[in-house]
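job 3f2a | input accepted
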Amino acid sequence: MKSLLLALGMFGLEGLASPISNTQRQGFERMGALSASLSKHRPLRARQDDWSDTRNEMTECKPVTVIFARGTIELGNVGSLAGPPFFNALDTVLGADNVGVQGVAYPATIEGYLEGGDPGGATTTATLLEQAASLCPNTQIVLSGYSQGAQEVHLGEAQVSADVAARIAAVVVFGDPFKGRPFPNIDESLVDTFCFAEDLICEDTIVVDTYHLSYAVDAVPAALFVQQHVSL
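job 3f2a | predicted structure (232 res):
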């Protein structure tokens, strides 16, 4: 938890991170270790939040279906660093009974990130989008991903038809290596990208810095963005 507090504390500091030119991949192991630690050691809270790193909730059609791809080396299928804080914020603003979360099962290896996103993960993302659209015709789909998961979201959404893309109510990406890349058949007003100016992964580098581990602080703004684009 000390690592998390340090990461959150860095959010208020500006101008401390300078661009780095380095051909060595750095920080991915730290990212995985912090994510694993948070899976085991979450603080007690007044309300019963769900910090599980695995979510498979497409068996029941909810008003809002979140399809989420985790970051590199994170555990489960939604990880811990960005996904669970975002889901808990959605439960707060939309109501837990209205939200179902489905994680994207893919390897999330360092090699997948360096490749520009795991091809199999992209296909799985596309399949989940198609299943949500066909099995739950009234659900409003929220597509989201963190770090390499944002790559999977970009690549997977590009594989679905315009009809399926039209079912996506909002897209939220955190620490996106493809920052600024449009989503086919989705209006840019439906997309919210959370990237610290100092996050080197958002510049498509291979360096994980403290900022890249800090997107829990954007959980509430992200949830409020979704709230603006769904109807309950």
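job 3f2a | The two ends are 36 Å apart (CA to CA).
job 3f2a | closed
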